[in-house]
Give the backbone structure.
Amino acid sequence: MHVAHLQLADFRSYPELDLALDAGVTTFVGRNGQGKTNLVEAVRYLSTLSSHRVASDAPLIKAGKERAVVGAKVVKGGRSLTLEVTIQPGKAKTARLGRAAARPRDLVGILRTVVFAPEDLALVKGDPSTRRAFMDELCVALAPVHSGVIADYERVLRQRTSLLKTARNARVDLTTLDIWDEKLAELGGKIVAARLASLAALRPYAETAYQDVAPGSAPFSLTYSSALDTSSAEASALGAQILATIGDRRQQEIERGVCLVGPHRDDVEIAIGDLPAKGYASHGESWSCALALRLASYDLLTADGGPDSEADGEPVLILDDVFAELDSGRRAALAARIATASQVLITAAVAEDVPPALEGSVFEVSSGTVTRRD
């Protein structure tokens, strides 16, 4: 799989862009603030309908413009597919697949990406929400239909939280809360089940990847942390547990005005040997953990193949200003692992940051102008 063409209109710093891309390694070189990351962010957006840099779509639209358009031609499984998304502030995004209008969610999973970025340290050092987002992103990449489950859960969670806050300050009919309890439990069970299955599939790849980037280190492990008994990974059983626990803690929830039960409270524990990585790992070890998670995601998605078993499921690898953060050993280890990928998109302030093993096409990026280097 690779992106053969990228087209932008009023996306970030680009009023207009029409860029042909090659398979293999492509590096975008330029000083900070010139628009390198905006290019790979656009590719990422077509993959997940979200940015790896910001939480909302508004910053993606060029200042003063009413909308942004991101489009790409993707070569996958021997076929060429054209994807396009239009982003409009305050309105639902629209999409096209080929020449036909499509629901935006129909595009999710067609183009798979795995992003390495400096922010990945938060996977180890950050709060649980970062690791939950990582797991949910992986679940959607493995089964795009899961994006609808997550969206529905977040909607129900907002509604139920609003009702709890109202119940805390006024007398309300709690039968309405019963309905939201059941829906939260049903959707929550599906999310936890998907996370458990995805983590079980990811774990052996992550253990191997960690030894590749940190040879001779103590074993690397991943454990799902939840108030639920996860010995059963069946969605219905997990949902029944959530519903029962909600019943036990309802008064606490009303008093505090928050939902205390559900997958939005869970975490993934990362450990090196017998110690948790968070709080104990050195800076280098933390980077090794983050790299292992991303490399494992790439390996798992490549092995999985995608929802269409005949399709090319190997993700496009995006390395956004990562090499400047790594020491020489980790640079070399990462380069060796990814040199043969179908497509690698790299951003770097200077070309010398990129290991020689990742030679390929190079583009100079300056003030929103992208020029291929001879």
In short: The radius of gyration is 22 Å. The chain is about 40% helix and 25% strand.
